[in-house]
Amino acid sequence: MHCPRCHTENRPQAKFCEECAAPLARACAHCGAELSPTAKFCPECAHPAAAGRGAQARFASPESYTPRHL
Fold this sequence. Notes:
By secondary structure, this protein is low in regular secondary structure.
């Protein structure tokens, strides 16, 4: 991902520029529209913005950490 402020090339998953800390824009995984760094949904197609970042996967299902006796 290319920083619009300092033009440094960053990792695709980066939320902020590794050189100047500017927030990096994202693209909608569904339609390709540009998303703001804080967007939760695409302004063009209303597709969830978190789907492309894996935000949903960071929480494990309750079954994986709940003791069996509960």
